[in-house]
Amino acid sequence: MYFYCNVVVISALLAVIDHNRSIYTYEHHPREERNTSVKVIAFGFTGIMLGTAAAFAVEPATESLINGTKIYTNERGMTLYTFDGDALGASACYDQCSKVWQPFAPAAGAIPDPHDDWTIIGRTDGAKIWAHHGKPLYTFAEDVKPGDTLGEGKDNAWHVATPD
Hints:
- There is one protein chain.
- This protein is of the alpha+beta class.
- The chain has 2 domains: about 55 residues; about 100 residues, no CATH class.
- About 30% of the residues lie in helices and about 20% in strands.
- It is globular.
């Protein structure tokens, strides 16, 4: 979706530039005015591109195939888990629990897609955590390399997060 919005923005900008072709000719503008006009257009284009980038949602996790099963992993390839003790939209893992099961925190400024299954929820400690289908997500401290799933079934309460 981001790509298509950029195509529309670029097309609109090119149409404006083509319509005001006199910006680039010497006979209509002294050199200073021409340079200023080009700078204004370039600055405006940069602002539009940055604004559209910030306005679009992010996909926080990656679907990875581990041992024949599709699971969710973070940007470093570490397995994401859900906790049976969590209520939908609320994390129950704090203190010692959150040292072993680190909350999957969103990057600053991350915006979930409102048409997707991903949300960002607030924790009582003031931090934020990604959730899938309302279930908060965590990484496991004992998983040391991408693809490890050592937390699966821990305490009969922790489960690998899957796309299903």
